[in-house]
Write a structure and sequence with these properties.
His_kinase_dom, Heat Shock Protein 90, single chain, alpha+beta, 3 domains, phosphoprotein phosphatase activity, membrane, 12 strands, transmembrane, five-stranded mixed β-sheet, kinase, five-stranded antiparallel β-sheet, 8 helices
Length: about 450
């Protein structure tokens, strides 16, 4: 799971946990708030009634039965004033939920009960509010709180997702830079533009690592070039000596056989050294790219060169190229070696009477995609990442070769900025090349 997905998951879980806790606590808190709000209203009404009694006297409130009970128009509030002894000698008010008779039915009211003395007479005053109206207020507040909570959670979640994406953008840029590296000698990159110290430190460490890899690779490349060049001279001398010895008269047959075998060995060694020198020169950018290459024409020349091998193995090669693919600037000789190696391998590792298909089509971004498919044995998936390494062989030596053909292919594609991607399944093996737009 990606870091961004983990952070998003953590944020979502934390928000869900917070929402769950609030949903459990909110009903109790809102109910308590509604009750406290109702009690405050009752106390305010009690204060207003006491003030009126002080101004106009208690007589205007009482009937001849020394009691007055009054409901409001909606029957959800009442005031009950009666003459009698004080219920609480200390004068403390009480609030409780009590049943009261309303229109012949017992209904729960939140009742504020107070006792007082007016003109030497004790009185008891009750002010009540129907719990149904309290529940209505409670339900309204609960709905409002639920909507507000959902809005707050979604808003903060979206805000945090945006912040996470913004903070991780330098990390995605670092990954993009690493994926763009096509070889051990990538061009230097400008410093990463970010305010996050951790990402700057990571970018600097990666750049230092790439510089070390580049330095080591250049030393290795120079060593291979020097060794290959130095070995070619004594090998050429040995070849000349073997040729002179083969021209000698009265040469025993056994000695002649050994000389021919040694000569073949030297020829293979010479071919290997020349291939290594070619790879080294390509990687050192010692080739110019002055040409504009017609890919269709170049493929025709490669197929003509390999025509005899196609006939010998009864392999059918078909081309389906759309448009007029071209590559510029380019080196025609190196591109010939690129396609020659790919099609040669397609013949070499194909089944007898198999097929090779070359398809090409222009892409919306201006590039040209070329696929070379053969119907040979599939390459195991675990070996595909190592396909372009030098001296790698996956055929158990059943096919003649030195394991350098695809290394040349990789070097030529990197030199020209061509993307290459191998794929293999039961239907065969396909090399997909992405040619950049000609300049």
């Amino acid at each position: 799971m990606r870091l961004q997905q983990q952070l998003v998951l953590l944020t979502t879980l934390s928000k869900c946990l917070m929402a769950g806790v609030l949903l459990l606590a909110l009903p109790w808190a809102i109910k308590l708030f509604a009750l406290r709000h109702t009690e405050a209203r009752l106390r305010n009404e009690l204060h207003q009634v006491r003030q009126r009694i002080e101004r106009v006297g208690v007589g205007s409130f009482l009937t001849t039965q020394d009691q007055r009970l009054h409901y409001d128009l909606l029957q959800d509030e009442f005031i009950d004033l009666r003459r009698g002894r004080r219920l609480h000698p200390g004068g403390a008010d009480t609030i409780a939920t009590l049943p009261r008779l309303r229109q012949g039915q017992l209904v729960d009211f939140r009742v504020l009960r107070a006792s007082f003395v007016h003109e030497g007479q004790p009185y008891t005053l009750e002010i009540g509010k129907s719990m149904e109206s309290v529940e209505d207020v409670y339900g309204l507040l609960r709905s409002f709180a639920a909507y507000a909570l959902a809005f707050a959670v979604l808003t903060t979640l979206l805000l945090e997702l945006g912040v996470i994406n913004h903070l991780l953008r330098p990390f995605d840029l670092i990954v993009h830079r690493l994926r763009a590296v096509q070889g051990p000698t990538p061009p230097p990159q400008p410093p990463l533009s970010t305010n996050t110290w951790d990402f700057r430190y990571l970018d600097e460490s990666i750049q230092q690592m790439l510089l070390k890899i580049r330095s080591v690779f250049e030393q290795e490349r120079q060593f291979i070039a020097n060794v290959s060049h130095e070995l070619l001279t004594p090998i050429s001398i040995l070849q000349n000596r073997f040729e002179n010895m083969l021209q000698a008269e009265n040469l025993p047959e056994e000695a002649e056989t050994q000389l021919v075998t040694s000569q073949k060995t030297l020829q293979r060694l010479t071919a290997t050294l020349r291939t290594l020198l070619l790879i080294s020169r390509i990687e050192n950018a010692q080739f110019a790219r002055p040409d504009r290459v017609d890919v269709r024409e170049l493929l025709r020349e490669v197929v003509e060169e390999l025509e005899d091998r196609l006939v010998d193995r009864h392999i059918t090669l078909t081309q389906q190229l759309e448009g007029t693919p071209a590559l510029a600037p380019a080196n025609r000789t190196l591109l010939f070696a690129l396609f020659f190696n790919l099609i040669s391998n397609a013949i070499k590792y194909n089944h007898p009477e198999g097929t090779i298909t070359v398809r090409g089509a222009a892409q919306p971004d201006g590039s040209y995609q070329l696929r070379i498919h053969n119907t040979g044995r599939p390459i195991p998936a675990e070996q595909l990442p190592h396909l372009f390494e030098r001296f790698r062989r996956f055929d158990d030596g059943r096919v003649e070769g030195y394991g350098l053909g695809l290394a040349v292919v990789r070097s030529v594609t990197q030199f020209h900025g061509i993307g290459i991607e191998p794929a293999s399944d039961e239907a065969g093996t396909t090399f997909t090349l992405t040619l950049p737009p000609p300049q």
